[in-house]
Amino acid sequence: MGIENLISIKIKALLLAQRARNALIKYLEEISVIKRKLKLVPTTEQLKTFFRICVRASNLLRNIELTRYDTRSQRIVVLIGTEIQVEILSNGEEIIQ
């Protein structure tokens, strides 16, 4: 094998490594997007608690002024009337303030 063949093989190996690296980066970016999208979905326990809170507020003839899913803390926040705030944790536990 001549030096030119060795250089050619080395260049091909480097190109393959670069392609593999680029494919891995793209794959990791796709996984990151999927993880971010998954955080946008409340848990089943949170939705059950949210439903119970809405029914209780309705039974008391109270308006639900605001609902929000906080992706940072993964909590649902509900503002009932102007003074009652409820936070629903990912395990379905509610904190009434």
| Strand arrangement in the largest pleated sheet | 1-2-3-4
The DSSP helix count reads 2
| Class based on secondary structure composition and strand pairing | alpha+beta
Mean pLDDT value: 87
Number of strands: 4
Query: How much of the polypeptide forms β-strand, as a percent range?
Result: 15-25%
The major pleated sheet works out as:
4 strands, antiparallel
Contiguous low-pLDDT stretches (5 residues minimum) are none
Q: How does this model look, in words?
A:
54% of the residues lie in helices and 22% in strands. It is of the alpha+beta class. It folds into 2 domains: 1-38; 44-96. It has a 4-stranded antiparallel sheet, with helices on one face. The relative contact order is 0.12. The model has no long low-confidence stretch (mean pLDDT 87).
